[in-house]
Design goal:
By secondary structure, this protein is of the alpha/beta class. It is built from 13 helices and ten strands. It has two domains: 187 residues, P-loop containing nucleotide triphosphate hydrolases (Rossmann fold), CATH 3.40.50; 84 residues, no CATH class. Helix 4 packs parallel to helix 8. It is globular, with a radius of gyration of 19 Å. The relative contact order is 0.17.
Length: 280
């Protein structure tokens, strides 16, 4: 285990407090409270329709919650994500996200996709294009740093040979890895992964598990995970929050959650647990 993980902060990176999200008469998230820490993987699990993606959409600015607070501490700054404009959630608060349905730019190269993720930083360095148009050193330095960061992730994920290939021409498993690399190129404080194992085969899922753990251990960031693959969730999570009908029904370590009768009834399946498989 890395020093970053061993020195996991006692103070939460992210706090979700009494979060409620209603759509007309439907309550999708009901007074949800939980925390996520730097240097830790926190998983949100629950049956289909439990409210997991709605929580992600509130955290990342796609939805404005009906009530409650979402707070992130980044360095010396405190941000209320429920009040922050969407672009500032990524730029200032340092929240990055991947999606269940891959959202790469299919007609751009892999390298270009990773550079697009750094657009805000490059624009600031170029004084919003002026320095770039004039070819000033500050922009050239920022551009070179951006390319170096992108290439470092290509090397880490063994994707260098695909740098100049259009993303849309690549296999699904490769696109999953590229999407995580693109999110990491924003240098986030919190990485939100929405069903990253969806559509992957067992070998690719094993590789994904190793990648997520390595990101936690090397960079010490917080990772928030939605995933239906219980083997992956139980194998890599430090803490698990279980939702059902928008409400939290359990929270704890993987061992605590998998033995909780409320979770067994709602999600994991009594037969699997009785056989010692914990819903795998």
């Amino acid at each position: 285990m890395s020093a970053a993980h061993a020195m996991q902060s006692e103070l939460p990176l992210l706090e979700v407090r009494d979060l409620t999200m209603r759509f007309g008469g439907l309550t999708a998230v009901d007074r949800l409270t939980f925390a996520a820490h730097s240097g830790a993987i926190t998983a949100l699990i629950g049956p289909n329709g439990a409210g997991k993606t709605t929580v992600f959409n509130c955290i990342t600015g796609f939805y404005r919650p009906t009530s409650g607070a979402i707070v992130i501490e980044r360095g010396d700054e405190t941000y209320r994500l429920d009040r922050l404009a969407g672009h500032r959630i990524a730029r200032d608060a340092g929240v990055a996200r991947t999606f269940q349905n891959i959202r790469l730019f299919p007609n751009m190269t892999v390298l270009e996709n990773l550079l697009v993720a750094q657009h805000a930083r490059l624009m600031r360095a170029s004084a919003f294009s002026l320095a770039g148009l004039l070819g000033l050193r500050r922009y050239r330095d920022a551009e070179e740093a951006g390319i170096a960061l992108a290439r470092s992730w290509l090397e880490r994920l063994d994707l260098v040979q695909y740098a100049d290939r259009d993303c849309g021409t690549l296999a699904y498993g490769l696109q999953r890895k590229i999407e995580i690399a693109r999110a990491m190129c924003t240098q986030p404080a919190l990485l939100c992964l929405d069903e990253p194992a969806a559509g992957l085969n067992p070998r690719e899922t094993t590789e994904l598990s190793r990648l997520i753990i390595s990101i936690r251990d090397e960079f010490g960031i917080g990772i928030l995970l939605i995933e239906h693959d219980m083997s992956l969730v139980m194998g890599i999570s430090d803490r698990i929050v279980v939702l059902d009908h928008g409400a939290r029904i359990s929270e704890g370590t993987p061992a605590e959650v998998r033995s909780d009768p409320a979770v067994i009834r709602a999600y994991l399946g009594e037969d699997d647990t009785a056989n010692g498989e914990g819903g795998r």
